[in-house]
UniProtKB/TrEMBL annotation:
InterPro entries: Ankyrin_rpt, Ankyrin_rpt-contain_sf, Cul2-RING_E3_ligase_SR. The chain crosses the membrane at residues 6-26, 38-60, 66-88. This is Ankyrin repeat domain-containing protein. SMART domains: ANK. It comes from the Bacteria. PROSITE patterns: ANK_REPEAT. ANK repeats lie at residues 260-292. The keyword Transmembrane applies. It comes from Larkinella terrae. The lineage of its organism: Bacteria, Pseudomonadati, Bacteroidota, Cytophagia, Cytophagales. Keywords: ANK repeat, Membrane, Transmembrane, Transmembrane helix. Pfam families: Ank_2.
Length: 333
């Protein structure tokens, strides 16, 4: 029992120092009244618990000393349990991340895993060699309905050398890969990468024949999607317009973050992307469009202007857009 008793005193000393440290830091700078009150309560409770453990360890009974040891060891055991749990979870996350990077998370068969690995490495020569071998279907979807073309396009959005990955995309197309497949759960490839991808990648898709006005099932044209993330938004909208995107194509009626039948100009204004608003206006966007629900550009702009006391306090980019809007809306004599 001597070892148990000594262990208890060591642990009691450690916890006592922690309680003392907390007590001395209650009045530290930046700790508000609520924080001080909460910490004071915890210190009081911890002091009572330590006093009880001291009494248990002093009593000349084996049972009380063992109870004290169990209580003292419990926080350490819980801490170790949490630490080990976090470690194994971190390892799992790293394995999943690695599997996503090399494609093995999406494809279970060895053939497509090898192809995906070649794409991830940007090894065009190896990719051509692997595709020369018999493959059941280059467009067969894997996990999350991802195809090899989808994986390559997603890899291009994260690669330090996207041009090399786009060469892999060319090779996949040459071997029959398509942007859309029969699987109803599959999202067309260009829609999967248009937000995080670059304007250069979007241009590649458009040059390969992707319709800039395509509307996926229950969705909206891609011109709305490229405005969602602040990744070359202006450049991507301009690229779409240069390739024939309709500046007045309305949004779908089942979008989560877009009001039904909103116009691209209204959506850009809702996102306060005034440079895109100017571009859309120059390319023929209708500033007088109104949705079936009665929403229009004027309502969006009125809502934006509410917090401002006057034009002098509004952003310059917004005032420039308003000036062009007024000029476009004024009837010519």
């Amino acid at each position: 029992m001597k070892i148990v008793t000594i262990s208890n005193w060591v642990l009691i000393g450690i916890y006592g120092l922690l309680v003392l440290y907390t007590l001395l830091g209650i009045n530290r700078s930046g700790n508000d009244a609520a924080g001080r009150g909460m910490e004071s309560g915890l210190v009081f409770f911890a002091a009572l618990l330590l006093a009880g453990l001291i009494v248990l360890n002093i009593l000349p009974y084996r049972a009380t000393k063992i109870i004290a040891l169990v209580v003292l060891a419990l926080p350490a055991l819980v801490g170790l349990y949490i630490a080990f749990g976090n470690y194994f979870e971190l390892q799992k996350q790293r394995r999943n991340a690695a599997a996503s990077e090399d494609g093995s998370a999406y494809f279970q068969d060895a053939g497509r895993q090898q192809i995906a690995a070649a794409i991830a490495a940007g090894d065009v020569t190896q990719l051509k060699t692997l595709l020369a071998k018999p493959l059941p279907s280059i467009n067969e979807p894997g996990f999350q309905s991802k195809t090899l073309l989808d994986f390559a396009a997603l890899t291009a959005t994260k690669s330090d050398n996207p041009q090399l990955i786009m060469q892999c995309l060319d090779v996949l197309l040459e071997h029959g890969a398509t942007f859309q497949i029969a699987d109803s759960a599959h999202i067309p490839t260009q829609f999967q990468v248009c937000e995080p991808g670059s304007a250069e990648l979007l241009t590649w898709f458009l040059n390969k024949g992707v319709d800039p006005n395509m509307v996926p099932r229950d969705g909206s044209p891609i011109i709305f999607k490229v405005m969602d993330l602040d990744v070359e938004r202006l450049e991507k909208v301009q690229t779409l317009l240069d390739h024939g995107a309709n500046p007045n194509a309305p949004a779908g009626s089942h979008e989560y973050a877009i009001r039904p039948f909103t116009s691209p100009l209204m959506y850009a204004a809702q996102r306060q992307s005034w440079a895109i608003c100017e571009l859309l206006l120059e390319r023929g966007a209708d500033p007088n469009y109104r949705t079936p629900g009665g929403d229009d550009l004027k309502k969006v702009l009125d809502e934006f202007e509410k917090p401002y006391s006057g034009p002098e306090t509004m952003p310059v980019v917004y005032l420039n857009f308003k000036k062009k809007l007024t000029t476009k809306s004024t009837p010519k004599p």
